[in-house]
Amino acid sequence: MTESTLPASLAEIRDDFLALEQRDRLEMLLEFSNELPELPARYQEHPDLFERVVECQSPVFIFVEVTDGVVHLFATAPKESPTTRGFASILVQGIDGLPVDEVLGIPDDFPNTIGLTEAVSPLRIRGMTAMLGRTKRQIRERLAA
């Protein structure tokens, strides 16, 4: 993975995680879980638009909008699932507002690079990887429509 393919927003998040000791990374993930943005009013009554990421142990749902070449990522996850919610929040905060090309260029292994592979189970990392994969797929679908 090269720096040129990772958007600055995600590179900063990754670097913040890597600057911490292993035990503090879980605390930072918890902070991200508390910062998952609420859904805009226009989507709160339309859960049917969201796609469940079945690879995640907890129910997480995502939806992507592409407006004028800019990606907007929305996600929901239960507060009782801080790991999954934290991963969703990292992606929402790191991707929302980026140009399509930057998001599609994010390396698929980004979740493996943020320093949590020793702190959480491989299944949870695969869940975050699936969230990123679905985000990219939804972008491609929106562009093709």
TrEMBL record:
Belongs to the SufE family. Residues 16-137 form the Fe-S metabolism associated domain. InterPro entries: Fe-S_metab-assoc_dom (IPR003808). Signal peptide: none annotated. It comes from Herbiconiux ginsengi. The lineage of its organism: Bacteria, Bacillati, Actinomycetota, Actinomycetes, Micrococcales. This is Cysteine desulfuration protein SufE.
